[in-house]
TrEMBL record, chain A:
Its EC number is 2.3.1.234. It is an enzyme of class 2 (transferase). GO terms for cellular component: cytoplasm; EKC/KEOPS complex; nucleus. Its cofactor is a divalent metal cation. A divalent metal cation binds at H109, H113, Y130, D294. GO terms for molecular function: metal ion binding; tRNA N(6)-L-threonylcarbamoyladenine synthase activity. It holds the Pfam family TsaD. This is N(6)-L-threonylcarbamoyladenine synthase. The keyword Protein transport does not apply. Keywords: Acyltransferase, Cytoplasm, Metal-binding, Nucleus, Transferase, tRNA processing. Substrate binds at Y130, V131, S132, G133, G134, D162, G177, E181, N266. Its main location: cytoplasm. It catalyses: L-threonylcarbamoyladenylate + adenosine(37) in tRNA = N(6)-L-threonylcarbamoyladenosine(37) in tRNA + AMP + H(+).
UniProtKB/TrEMBL annotation, chain B:
It is found in: Cytoplasm; Nucleus. The keyword Transmembrane helix does not apply. Component of the EKC/KEOPS complex composed of at least GON7, TP53RK, TPRKB, OSGEP and LAGE3; the whole complex dimerizes. InterPro entries: CTAG/Pcc1. Transmembrane segments: none annotated. The lineage of its organism: Eukaryota, Metazoa, Chordata, Craniata, Vertebrata. This is L antigen family member 3. GO terms for cellular component: cytoplasm; EKC/KEOPS complex; nucleus. It comes from Xenopus tropicalis. It comes from the Eukaryota.
Length: 335, 89
């Protein structure tokens, strides 16, 4: 029996999750929500995390009905992410690990998403589409490494959606992406946007500049509605993601797709991916917002796998890092 | 001539050397940015955590010290809430 506590706070969510041998005992989370039209800045986000992390930790322990003595390992996000929030969360993880005399484990955030997706869906060896506010990658496992087959060459797909939401002053509560998804359902007219797939990679910054520019003109002249723009942007971005995912599957001969990351709970993206999978006779795996969006349990789950395979992080090596690629991690827990 | 560097010295007493050591280990791993124009060294003697800063500019020193104090306060709050240190693993 192995119990791992996971701390996540690399972006605007702060979460603490507790995993016991594949079972989620608790997974509380708080989100730092900014006013419409504003993004979240590193220092404000870190302050938010510091103000509630101890409450979230206590909530996690109470809900899981465990005591610090029962914990086997304390896992935290080492990176990638925003420096200030990562550091605040790491400091608490280091302190409780020492107070409780438990080993510490630094986890790659992307690996956390993948392992949580595998645990929840039961997908064995999927091609993974990891889509969030900070990352966009198509990943497949081979030879002890999650290899990146394709990725964004500029901004993440979620960043493109978030920043478009700011232009239209769409609410950030519960998340800009969720609100765009709801508005897109009422869209009627498809506005053509640039489509920028570059081989296995994608680019979103040009699409964002284009839609930022033309939205004011088209909205003020009444040529289209905000709902039409949400719809057109989603259709364009998600088509690109489906295309590169399909290409990765063809390369790997893979018959499974797993979607992880905050954008992964978008039902329209899941639908479009589902159509592609059906045509190929492949299977689609996705999770809901509890596990798609950043959470503590995903760090606990990746930590659980790492800890069981014999890894720990010494305190002096427990520095955080804003850049930490998925393929830098040696996957010691898979064949 | 090289201009003299600004220095700042902080001593933080803890209830015992155990807590001072924990605070040291929690606050030590992350170095200041290499080209940031500020350096910070931590050490522990008995129950006291010592921190020494050297910086080129007061502005940069202030940012580093105030961010350190935020983190120190977070460590102390964590100890208050989830301490005292357990004796046996």
């Amino acid at each position: 029996m192995t119990i791992v506590v996971g701390f996540e706070g690399s972006a605007n969510k702060i979460g603490v999750g507790i995993i016991q041998d594949g079972k989620v005992l608790s997974n509380p989370r708080r989100t730092y929500i900014t006013p419409p039209g504003q993004g979240f800045m590193p220092s404000d986000t870190a302050r938010h995390h510091r103000s509630c992390i101890l409450d979230v930790l206590q909530e996690a322990l109470e809900e899981a009905k465990i005591k610090p003595q029962d914990v086997d390992c304390v896992a935290y996000t080492k990176g990638p992410g925003m420096g200030a929030p990562l550091l605040s969360v790491a400091i608490v993880a280091r302190t409780v690990a020492q107070l409780w005399k438990k080993p510490l484990l630094g986890v790659n955030h992307c690996i956390g998403h993948i392992e949580m997706g595998r645990l929840i869906t039961g997908a064995e060896n999927p091609s993974v589409l990891y889509v969030s506010g900070g990352n966009t990658q198509v990943i497949a496992y081979s030879e002890r490494c999650y290899r990146i087959f394709g990725e964004t060459i500029d901004i993440a797909v979620g960043n493109c959606l978030d920043r478009f939401a700011r232009v239209l002053k769409i609410s950030n509560d519960p998340s800009p992406g969720y609100n765009i998804e709801q508005m897109a359902k009422k869209g009627k007219k498809f506005v053509e946007l640039p489509y920028t797939v570059k081989g296995m990679d994608v680019s979103f910054s040009g699409i964002l500049s284009y839609i930022e520019d033309m939205s004011h003109k088209m909205l003020s002249s009444g040529e289209c509605t905000p709902e039409d723009l949400c719809f057109s942007l989603q259709e364009t971005l998600f088509s690109m993601l489906v295309e590169i995912t399909e290409r990765a599957m063809a390369h790997c001969g893979s018959q499974e797709v797993l979607i992880v990351g905050g954008v992964g709970c978008n039902v329209r993206l899941q639908e479009m991916m589902g159509v592609m999978c059906q045509e190929r006779g492949a299977k689609l795996f996705a999770t809901d917002e509890r596990f798609c969006i950043d959470n503590g349990a995903m760090i606990a789950q990746a930590g659980w796998e790492m800890f069981r395979s014999g890894q720990v992080t010494n305190l002096q090596d427990s520095w955080i890092t804003q850049r930490y690629r998925t393929d830098e991690v040696e996957v010691t827990w898979r064949d | 001539m090289v201009s003299p560097m600004l220095q700042f010295k902080l001593c933080v007493p803890f209830p015992s050397s155990k807590e001072a050591e924990i605070a040291y280990n929690s606050l030590c791993p992350d170095a200041e940015p290499r080209k940031g124009g500020v350096s910070k060294t931590l050490s522990v003697t008995d129950n006291i955590l010592h921190v020494n800063w050297k910086a080129d500019e007061a502005r940069i020193l202030r940012v580093s010290v105030s961010s350190f104090l935020e983190h120190l306060s977070l460590v102390v709050l964590t100890m208050d809430r989830f301490g005292p240190p357990l004796d046996n693993p």
